[in-house]
Amino acid sequence: MSQHDVTKALAIVREHFGEIDAALTQLPDPQVRMATREVLQRLVTRPSVGRKTLASPAILTPTEAARLVGASPDSVRRWCEQGRIPGYRTPGGHWRIARKDLDQVDAFRRALETVSKIWAQDPETQFDA
After folding, report:
1. How confident is the model at residue 103 (pLDDT cuts 50, 70, 90)?
2. Helix (H, G, I), strand (E, B), or coil: what is residue 96?
3. In the predicted model, what is the mean pLDDT of residues 89-104?
4. Using alpha carbons only, how large is the chain's radius of gyration in Å?
5. Which candidate, 105, 72, 69, places its Cα nearest to that of 87?
6. Higher model confidence: residue 121 or residue 4?
7. Which three-class secondary structure state does DSSP give residue 97?
8. Is the pTM of this model over 0.90?
9. Deepest in the core among 25, 54, 112, 114, taking most CB within 10 A?
10. Quick check: helix, strand or coil at residue 61?
11. 11 or 94: whose pLDDT is higher?
12. Which residues does residue 59 pair with via DSSP β-bridges, in sequence order?
């Protein structure tokens, strides 16, 4: 399926979203109904398709977050699991991180690195108050 075909299909879904959403009420399983509605909503509102990044700038995947802080995606996932970075799991079990939370964590990390460098250069400063 080409990029043009995907774009055309998304345009059809956007045009008929109300009808599709109404038809979802016929699904017997409420979890399937909710998951399907969420997927459709994401398809309709996402900024791009194909292999480009799909997450909004406000919400990041672990890979996107890792690029910003200079770490591996596995490290970012582990930090989320440990509570070191505020994150949440999607219904599909994937981690997402709010950009504002990541910016705060990254600023704190850079401040700690700066203090560590100062202490490494002059250990006496550790005890100055």
Report:
1. confident
2. strand
3. 87
4. 21
5. 105
6. 121
7. strand
8. no
9. 54
10. coil
11. 94
12. 98
| Phi, psi for residue 127 in degrees, rounded to 5 | -105, 5
- Cα(97)–Cα(71) distance, rounded to whole angstroms? 14
User: What pLDDT does 74 receive?
Assistant: 94
Structure tokens that stand for 125 in this block:
């400063």
How does residue 38 score in pLDDT terms, banded at 50, 70 and 90? confident
- Output the six-digit token pair for 74: 């596995």
Q: Which two tokens stand for residue 94?
A: 């994937």
Identify residue 47 by its one-letter amino acid code: P
Count of residues in the chain: 129
Indicate the SS3 state at residue 55: coil
Q: How far is CA 110 from CA 30, 70, 102, 105, 126, in A?
A: 45, 11, 12, 9, 18
Q: Which domains does the chain possess?
A: 1-54 (no CATH), 56-129 (1.10.1660.10)
